[in-house]
Amino acid sequence: MREPTTTHWSIAEIVARYGQAWADHDVAAILALQSDDMVFHLHSAGNAPVAGVQSLRAEFRQLFELLPDLAFDTTRLDIGADFYVHEYQIRASGGRDESAESGISVPAVDVIRCRSCQVTRKDTYVDSLALSAQLGVTGS
What's the rounded Cα separation, in Å, for the pair 122 and 41? Predict the structure, then answer.
């Protein structure tokens, strides 16, 4: 198991470091803050949970390649003893066209579990209806 550089981080410190790693699109920093048994589950469109360092690395790299200007604006943050809930707005141009008309801005929530100064689980819930509407996707 990878060990963080310190073993006495508070949940607030993990929140700050993990959030900065995501803001920087720094896959190595994200992975360094996660346990080896970490599970990421994007709850939309039938996505299955992703686990294992190699699979997580590929998943996060793909996300940042697809949305190179991906950003997160916090709207609420609730911190518990071994978890935190992060509500935020996802912003991105979609990666193909930098114009405002092609961009997305949708609400999302992360429920993140921590153990021994590492993230062990990240469940992400995105407003799929808002995302579909902004992408012009219609149901059949």
Answer: 6
